[in-house]
Each structure stands twice: as structure tokens, then as C-alpha cells.
Amino acid sequence: MKSFKIYIMVLCLLGAVSCTDLLDQEPISITHPDVFWDSQANAEQAVAGAYGLFKEAIMTQSNFLYWGEWTGMTFMNSRNWIVNYIEGSGNYVLAYRDASINWKNFYRAANWAYTIEQYVNDMPVEMFDSKTEKDRILGEAAFIRSLTYFYMARIWGDVPVVEQSIESSDQLISEDGYIVETPRVDELEVLDYALEAVNKSIGLLQYSTPGASNWAITANKASAEALKAHITLWYASRDNDNVEMIQQSIDATTAVINNSGASLIDYLNEGKDGFDEMCIGQSKTGLFEINISAEMNESFRLLQYDDNHTGLTLNYPVWQSVNTGISPYIDPDFYGNEMMATDADRSNDVRKDLFFYEYGTNADYSYLQKYSHSEQDPASEDAYAQFSESNILIFRLADMYLLRAEANARKGVSGPAISDLNTIRSKANVPDYTGGTDRESLMKAIFDERAIEFVGEAQSGYDRIRMDYYDGVPWVNQARNAKKGYFWPVHPSVISRNPSIIQTEYWRGKL
């Protein structure tokens, strides 16, 4: 990927990135704002660049899995020696993976999105096809800004909030010649900032429809409401079950469920066809996802190594032979596998056969199938010339039902919580929940459902923190959590460049 310098070059979704002209743009060089911010086409190109920068932030070295999947230790044991730093010891200081503890790519995406908002806001409506189109561009930029800060809050907790567009090095130097230092702010302030941005996005965007050309791969009103549901429930969990935030999460999830046009995949009746459509992307259940398409020249060759997420999740038969040294497998001793084995309700859960290859039959062969969709290069006779076709699912409709169930469980309203939980269970041939209606029992049931439903989608690590549920994560303890050891450390280079940044308490002296 090409390097990006703020306001000098925009990456357009790592190259050509979508099935529409809106995102199918070349990288652009900007010489002067009056030259560039003069048409809707250029504004569209800029938004494509913002999506591309967010995509780069989460896909670099498969970071989204390290941040949100391996930390959860639910089903997959990657057996990758770098992942063992997490699964084996809880040590997030990963050798040769500086990008995992460096937030710079997120700030690039957030700053570019903020820059778009500032300039597009000042562009006359006459430069656009309509005011609705101008609002859409502003709404998508605000969505990306909110999403990047939300990711940073979940990964690092306290982070700096930069409320200006950094376009010149002069902005980094004070009037008396000193380097401007921006400290970390409390995570609730970060969440307030993300919430302000997503509310702006919701107010500007319109609902879309499954089947639309940009469905789920660019933000619409439902995408923004899904993000708000996550932000507010995370906020509530970090603020003593903040009642207002819980209600906002319920309202946001309800709006998505009622108005998005999305529908759930019925795994029992739709089987592999429904599963494949969901994973390949832009399906009826998607709300926001990262598009991976060989047809649109934005895919990548499948590799058996840790530099892409397929290498960390796939094994035989995708690689034509079994690799038992570093390849992933479904660990029978991990939390999710024990849960599925001991819960009688899960005996006929169809997701075991849909989501995994030969689940429970051979540990060396069993692996996740959500990223197994690929396309063979027709011009190559090489059996390994396969290119990924599986999208990275960020938000989808099942997530909204289970977030709403969790929010109601936090309120002590068990009826609606169980109803939403059962809605998801029914799609996988799992009987209705008959366990306890107390908060602890419901939260475990919801966590378990999320663990199997979103396996491989980088949710369980964040679910652990939000739900304060660490059963099956052996290195977590009260003393570590008291020092926020569930957050990732800040890269030392960030601190050396900005001495106002203070390392998270747990990680002081460990880097």
C-alpha cells in the first residue's frame, strides 16, 4: 500500500475498491484546496480515500483479528507464534508487529474524514447533484470519523482527540516554536466525541435497501445507527450502566431492526447458500462491511501466513494439505468449544457445520470457513492462485438483536432480552432459552450466542471487555483489570514523540 500524507494524497480503498463509479477511483494528489474542493466528483473521491484509510488501519497485518478476536479466546487457536503472545500469556507486545500497538493509521483515517467534513461543508450546494448528495458525503465522512475513534476507544481506552484538520506541519508547532503536544483524554470523552460524530451522520444519511449498489460497503443511516448502538452500549458498560446510554442503544438497535430493510439469515432453511451470501458480502443481512472483491481488483492472493486474515483462519482443504505447525484449528479446550459441547441445546446448532470445516471431528482439519470464499485466477494453472472473496463483516443485523438483548438485560428487563436472544437462536436450530432470568445468567447466555454467531468477526475480544466476562481467558485477573490491562499498550514511539502521552498503567515498564 502506498504511504499517505495528510492532505497530500488520498488512498482510494487501497486502489479500485467497489462496483460503482463512486468508489472506483484512482489516488489523487492535492496541490491547493481551491483546486480540489470544486466538484461532487472530487468530494466522492475524497470519501473513497477515507474508507480506504480505515480499511488499511484494520487490515494491516490482520490487526482486526488481533484486537478483537484472539484476545477473546473463544474457538480458534491460531497456533501462530505471534498470536501466542496473546493466547499464551496475555502479552500484547507482539514481536515484529509495531502496527498493532500504533494508532497512527486510525488518526490518518479520522483526520482525513474530518478534513472532508470541513471543506465539503463550505462547498456550495450547486456543486452537487442535490443537497441530499452533499449531505450524504458529509454523513459518510462523519461516520468514518466516529468509527475510527470508537475502534481506538475499544483498543486503547484513553486516546487523544484531535478536533482540527491537520493539513500543514505549521499546525504542529506553537507560536513560540514548541511542538504542540496533545495528551490522551478519558475514554468517556473519546466516546462522547464519537457519539457526536455518529449523531451528525445519522442526521445526514438516508436508509438504503439490500441490493443497492453500495449496500453495506458504504455507510447509510442504518450503518450509522448500528455504530451508535455499539458506542452507547460500550459507554454504558464503562460508566456504571449509564441508564441514558442503555436506552439510546435500545433505541438505535430498534431503529435498525425496524427501518434498515435488512433481514436475518435463516441458517436452518437457507443453509450454505445463505451463509455464503453473508460472507461474500452485500447480503440482505449486512449493515457495514469491508468489501473484498477480486472482480473489482481489490482482493488479495490467499497466503498461508499471518500477514492476512485468511492465513490466520484457514487450513485444509484450502491449502490442499494439512499444516499442523502454525495453521489454526478449533481448540477443544477453548471456551466456545467447551460451551458448545456441554450445552445440550447446541447439539443440533447448524452453525457448527456452516461456520466450520468438519467441526469436532479432527482438530488438525477443523477451521473457520467465514474467510474461505475465493476465486481461482482463470489465467493461472497454479492451484494456489486463489483470491479472497470474503468480506470483513463489521456490523450485521444479528448483532443488533443481541445488543438489544444485552441492553435490556442490563436494565433488568428479561422478557424482551430473552425474546431477542431466541430470535437469533431459532435461525440456527437452537431451542428457546430456558435458563435463569437474572442478569448474570442472561449475560452469559447472550455472550455465548455472540461467541458462536460472530466467531471470526473480531467481536469476542471487545465483548469480553464490555460484558466484563472473562471465563476461559486464563491470564485475566482482577489485579490486571484494575490497571486496565485489557487495553492494548501505546507504542513507545508515540510517547517519545509526544511526552504528554502517558502509558496505560498496566503496561508501564513492560515495553
UniProtKB/TrEMBL annotation:
<dbReference type="Pfam" id="PF07980">
    <property type="entry name" value="SusD_RagB"/>
</dbReference>
<feature type="domain" description="RagB/SusD">
    <location>
        <begin position="360"/>
        <end position="480"/>
    </location>
</feature>
<feature type="domain" description="SusD-like N-terminal">
    <location>
        <begin position="23"/>
        <end position="207"/>
    </location>
</feature>
<keyword id="KW-0472">Membrane</keyword>
<dbReference type="InterPro" id="IPR011990">
    <property type="entry name" value="TPR-like_helical_dom_sf"/>
</dbReference>
<keyword id="KW-0998">Cell outer membrane</keyword>
<dbReference type="Pfam" id="PF14322">
    <property type="entry name" value="SusD-like_3"/>
</dbReference>
<keyword id="KW-0732">Signal</keyword>
<dbReference type="InterPro" id="IPR012944">
    <property type="entry name" value="SusD_RagB_dom"/>
</dbReference>
<comment type="similarity">
    <text>Belongs to the SusD family.</text>
</comment>
<dbReference type="InterPro" id="IPR033985">
    <property type="entry name" value="SusD-like_N"/>
</dbReference>
<protein>
    <submittedName>
        <fullName>RagB/SusD family nutrient uptake outer membrane protein</fullName>
    </submittedName>
</protein>
<feature type="signal peptide">
    <location>
        <begin position="1"/>
        <end position="23"/>
    </location>
</feature>
